[in-house]
Amino acid sequence: MSQINNESKEILHSSDAYLETLDLFLKNKDKLMTLSVKEPNFFELNVYCKYHYLVENNFDELKNDAMAKVKDLELLTMIQHFVSNIDLENSTFSKTKKGIFFILKSTDEQIIPFFIDDMHMKFNLKFHNTNIAVNYEDFI
Q1: Residues 106, 128: contact at Cβ < 8 Å?
Q2: How far is it, in rounded angstroms, from Cα 117 to Cα 93?
Q3: Domain extents in the chain
Q4: Angle, to 10 degrees, between the axis of helix 73-85 and the axis of helix 60-69?
Q5: Which residues pair with 123 in a beta bridge?
Q6: 45-84 per-position pLDDT tens digit
Q7: Which of 98, 99, 122, 132 is the most buried (most CB within 10 A)?
Q8: Cis peptide upstream of residue 113 (ω within 30 degrees of 0)
């Protein structure tokens, strides 16, 4: 069994805290949020969370949860397509077995799917007209 050095353990702990915080934040589906993406290209959108699921161990659980909860055929099709086509071979998920999948829908009807398994994507979500936010920079 390979040993994980202290720096790696700290990074994994930060990633877990980040994913769990993001999961709690996304449970507020009815609240308007501002999504700010820093890289690769900066943009901001007002969005609602339409679906989210904290994936632990396998994607069959995500698929089953979506089949039970999602009534919107377009979103359900997107989730099924994602589960069928995701390449996890060199991902953080292949090591940690933890990630969060979520779908945001902008106020202009743009659908934005995400799968976050580490802190490499530079973005934040903030409840509209408040200072309550989840920001990747708070975990690095």
Answers
A1: no
A2: 6
A3: 6-139
A4: 170
A5: 37
A6: 999 999 999 988 877 888 899 999 999 999 999 888 888 8
A7: 99
A8: no
